[in-house]
Specification:
mainly alpha, ABC transporter involved in vitamin B12 uptake, BtuC, cell membrane, transmembrane helix, globular, Iron complex transport system permease protein, membrane, single chain
């Protein structure tokens, strides 16, 4: 497809994918421990959109208070992880990088594990787990940044090595907290959280992650041309007038903010930030002005259906989302890489 054709196709593709996300969201409301018909679900959705409530109070409570915020959280987290994946792969110029490479997720795991096993931050009530995970993520971000800068700057190699080492250290600390925890059931809770879930989605928990995703998207779109230059190489970017050091710092903190916020509300969900950017590049190329919006809606669509699969695969229990993304993501990633239709950092 020509460059002009791609530019014309990208808005249409975005609209199609966004429409699929909206349709999939309504369909996802029919699935759960009790299945409802699309007619019953649509009656609830239409009633709330018009300012009322559904005709059946029991169905209304399940669909609107439990399943709807859960589905919206999956949409938000999928978009956030996909954007974080694009930012990370551009930052380190490595197509194998994923949002969890720098240890932010492992730091969040320490905070969340401390909440589950030791009861810290209990004064925050329902928000204690999210607060603990977010503070852990911020602590990990600060540690990676400080160590990398102290060793000479935010170069891709230093970031990767520092992130990998600290990620192992944070994971070991989280495991130690589980081992020392007084309640054996806490270990199961920690494991489920580390593998990710949007089951705790509530209306009052959606605003913060949604704002983070929106802010990150706007900033990344504003920097799209600079990101294209950086993906081609730091020397090329510098020759085009890009301040590479500042751009790397901005990318580092954007992806850290995205990962911290998403992990805080949904736990560690793998493969989304690795696979979706590659899929988006296959569809529209590597220019970030096209890549970012397509990756965002593709991530939303992917994680929304992952959550549906997690709900219906082993009733009455739910499978952690990380298990489903691993089963689906690994063969999908290998399939995409086997096709070889694009080169990282180019428009083709």
């Amino acid at each position: 497809m020509s460059t002009l054709g791609r530019r014309l196709a990208t808005p249409a593709l975005f609209v199609v994918l966004a429409a699929l996300v909206a349709l999939s969201f309504v369909i996802s409301l029919t699935f759960g421990s009790v299945d409802y018909s699309r007619t019953e679900v649509w009656q609830v959705v239409a009633a709330h959109l018009s300012g009322g409530k559904g005709p059946d109070q029991a169905i209304d409570s399940v669909v609107w208070e439990l399943r709807a915020p859960r589905g919206l959280l999956a949409i938000i987290v999928g978009a956030g992880l996909a954007l974080a994946g694009v930012a990370m792969q551009t930052l380190v110029r490595n197509p194998l990088a994923d949002p969890y490479l720098l240890g932010v997720s492992s730091g969040a795991s320490v905070g969340a594990t401390a909440v589950i096993t030791l009861g810290v931050f209990s004064s925050f009530g329902l928000y204690s787990l999210s607060v603990g995970a977010l503070l852990g993520a911020l602590g990990a971000t600060a540690a990676v940044y400080a160590i990398t800068v102290a060793q000479g700057g935010l170069t891709p190699l230093r970031l990767i090595l520092t992130g990998v080492v600290l990620s192992s250290a944070f994971s070991a600390l989280a495991s130690f907290l589980v081992f020392k925890g007084p309640d054996a059931r806490a270990a199961q809770g920690v494991m489920f959280w580390m593998l990710g879930s949007v089951a705790g989605g509530q209306w009052n928990k959606l605003l913060l992650p949604a704002l983070v995703v929106l802010l990150a998207f706007v900033v990344l779109m504003f920097l799209a041309n600079s990101l294209d230059a950086l993906a081609a190489g730091p020397d090329t970017a510098a020759a085009l007038g890009v301040n590479v050091a500042v751009l790397r710092q901005v990318l580092f903190f954007i992806q850290a903010l995205l990962v911290g916020a998403m992990v805080a509300v949904a736990g560690g969900i793998g493969f989304v930030g690795l696979v979706i950017p590659h899929l988006a590049r296959m569809l529209v190329g590597s220019l970030h002005r096209r890549l970012l919006p397509i990756a965002m809606v593709s991530g939303s669509l992917f994680l929304l259906w992952v959550d549906v699969i997690a709900r219906i695969s082993a009733p009455p229990q739910e499978i952690p989302l990380g298990v489903v993304t691993g089963v689906l993501g690994a063969p999908l990633f290998l399939l995409l890489m086997g096709r070889g239709r694009y080169k990282f950092g180019s428009a083709s």
